Amino acid sequence: MSCGNHETDCSEVLSEVWLFLDHECDEKRKNLLATHLEECHPCLEQYGIEEHLKALLAKKCGGEHAPEELKQRLRDKIRQSQAAAPQPTPE
């Protein structure tokens, strides 16, 4: 896909948009992608959708931790199970 006269092809930019969002590309590539996104409305629109999706996923799926009481109960149950399990006999 290409929508204009850009140094980088649109399909290439869109295939790397998650790397750009996650800050996982080097500075040169980051600048190249940012320039393309500034100049290309269709890619910028797609980038906005991806950015919104990433933020939504982080909000809904990230950062939740099990309560400390639950973790402790699970640890206790695991220890009880291990203690109650028959020990292998040496051969």
From TrEMBL:
Signal peptide: none annotated. InterPro entries: Anit_sigma_mycothiol_RsrA, Znf_put. Residues 10-43 form the Putative zinc-finger domain. Residues 71-91 are annotated as: Disordered. It comes from the Bacteria. This is Mycothiol system anti-sigma-R factor. It comes from Saccharothrix violaceirubra.
